[in-house]
Amino acid sequence: MDAQMPSKSNIEELYNSYYPIFSCILNNVQNMLAGDLDLNPRPVLKSRIKSFKSYYSKVVRQRADAIYRTDKLVCLTDMIGIRVVCAFLEDISNVVKQISEKYSVREIERKGESMSFKEFGYESVHILINIPTECLDLSVLNPGLVKDHPIPPELCCEIQVRTILQDAWAEVEHELIYKTEFTPFDAPLRRKLACVNASLSLADTIFQEIRDYQKNFQRAVDERRESFYQKADVITDQENGLQAVKGQAQAKQEDIGRVSPYVRGTIDDMILRALQAHNSGNLDLAVTIYSDILNSKTQLNDNVLSVIHKHRGMAFFAQNKYNEALEDFEKSANYGTDNFRSIYYMGIVYGVTGQNEKALEAFTKSLELNGFQSHAYYRRALTYFNLADYQKSLEDLNAANRLGLDNDECKALRAKLNKKFDMM
To answer: Is 84 helix (H, G, I), strand (E, B) or coil?
Structure first.
């Protein structure tokens, strides 16, 4: 049989002659994949064509029978590959889902999935996809080369999906283990490597848990802020005779199915519970939790104090306790040197309580800190209107429109301004 087997040099020559073909196809697939994946933050894509040394070692080991039977190129499933490196564990399942929906998948293998809780090792998801038809366009290559090198019908692309830490471990493990041979006397080194891998796995888990918490927190903050704006708009609409119906924001907490990294009773946990109570309408509980945080013996920095006072102020506002709300917003603004939003909230409280001069001062100060607040321009325009300064009211209303705000309230104010100008 040895006499029938092609020489290594002939196999290498054939393999290398296909390099431009594989490179063109791989580049096409990578460009398509980069455009199809929708993640934030965006993953990093790396690609490679299997080196001849690795190819020859594997093809002799796994496909020797094929080498004897043909003088054509013998394909392996990982001859061309793309690595998708994600920031978080949850991104892996999202990538797998998106690839499965948009590509013809041959196989999905989850490396390391069968390991017991006592083991740590290589982890990755490997996806084999058929080459999309549009990626087989080789028009940029020499026509003669393409004609003499028909694309093997079994050619596919292996896509490996990992986190940043899994990728780092795989790179190091490849250098320290697969490029050398451990002897039984290397057991202490293996234990050290296992400890490093365990630490990286734990870090991945913690990163994901923190991200889950932050998403839950931000969702609660957005809902709470929206309910605050809705209440302020309802009061304004009533004053202006508008009949717009506004629904209260509903809490839509997502069950992430993971253990929170924050110990119950810590500041982070208490803030999240207060926000959830606020969004569900349990305002007394929300105020109580915010107050417990402020009255705790824990040393809080100015940023935390600013946030807690701002949140409690919004809860007071929802209870129609405007004096208490104003006091909290003022404290929040004082603790945060550039807290334009708390100052804006002060302006809203002044506005709904008829203190237009103070409202004007607050809105102006907030806009000086951040001039891209469409709602602040609208509120100041409304305040100018109440103070009978119709020209400045129109200027601010136009500024709000330029920033993208053109809702029913803006249209109603513009109609009232037009009537005032018509009367002049």
So the answer is: strand
Residue 47 structure tokens: 């690609």
Q: What is the rounded distance in angstroms from the CA atom of residue 384 to the CA atom of residue 206? A: 50
Q: Which residues touch 148 (CB under 8 Å, ≥6 apart)?
A: none
- Sequence length of the chain is 424
Contact predicate 248/283, CB 8 Å: no
What residue ranges of the chain are covered by domains with CATH 3.30.460.10?
2-180
Residue 396's pLDDT band, with cuts at 50, 70 and 90, is very high
Determine the Cα–Cα distance for residues 254 and 302; give it in Å rounded to an integer. Answer: 30
The H or E element that residue 129 is part of is: strand 124-130
User: Exposed/middle/buried for 69, CB within 10 Å: 0-12, 13-18, 19+?
Assistant: exposed
Contacts of 113 (CB under 8 A, 6+ apart): none
Give the pLDDT score at 3. 47
Q: pLDDT tens-digit profile of 9-32?
A: 888 999 999 999 999 999 999 999
Gap between the Cα atoms of 362 and 257, Å rounded = 43
Residue of 282, 270, 276, 346 lying closest to 308 (CA atoms):
270
Supply the CATH classification number for the domain 2-180. Answer: 3.30.460.10
Question: What residues does CATH 1.25.40.10 cover in the chain?
Answer: 205-370
Burial class (CB in 10 A: 0-12, 13-18, 19+), 413: buried
Residue 202 has pLDDT above 70, yes or no: yes
> Per residue in 81-128, pLDDT tens?
999 999 999 999 999 999 999 999 999 998 765 554 444 445 689 999
In this prediction, residue 299 carries a pLDDT of 79
pLDDT classification of 390: cutoffs 50, 70, 90: very high
The CATH number of the domain covering residues in 205-370: 1.25.40.10
Q: How far is CA 99 from the centre of its chain?
A: 18
